[in-house]
Design a protein that fits this description.
Blueprint: H1 2-7, H2 10-23, E1 34-36, E2 47-50, E3 58-64, E4 71-72, H3 74-86, E5 91-96, E6 99-100, H4 102-110, E7 114-118, H5 120-129, E8 139-142, E9 145-148
Parallel strand pairs: 3-5, 4-6, 5-7
Antiparallel strand pairs: 1-2, 2-3, 8-9
Helix pairs in contact: 3-4
Length: about 160
Amino acid sequence: MLDRLRKASPSFLERVVVSLLVAMGYGGGDASMGRVTGGAGNGGIDGTITEDKLGLDEVYLQAKKYASGSTVGVGELRNFVGALMGARAQKGVLVTTADFTASANEFAAQSPKRVVLINGRRLARLMVRHDAPPFWYPRWTVRERPLLLARSPGQF
């Protein structure tokens, strides 16, 4: 699964991360409560999702598509925390297909913002546990529950 995510486009990974958080219950499980904001000029924020159905608080997302054996360092994490500050956000999730350095983990634990780090192994486990669609098939089934994915022409 991780190999396929690593080969996909960055925007693909961003959509997967938003869909995963919806599958985990963020936004009350309503896909319309999450959005991908990636692309040029996104200010370091690749997506957002509300914490509940009412939209009382928003979680900001960043997705880093790195090769196996690579690491996301403290510099990238500082940039993300700076983007959170710029957006006046309190909470963020930084997801990578690789891993984080020890200094990045330490920084996240001490950050003035609440930041959760999800490495590649944890990402794959969460996708399976929450039946989050990987988007490379229009129809994908995990644990006997079919998922029909909406897509626009040329999206993949």
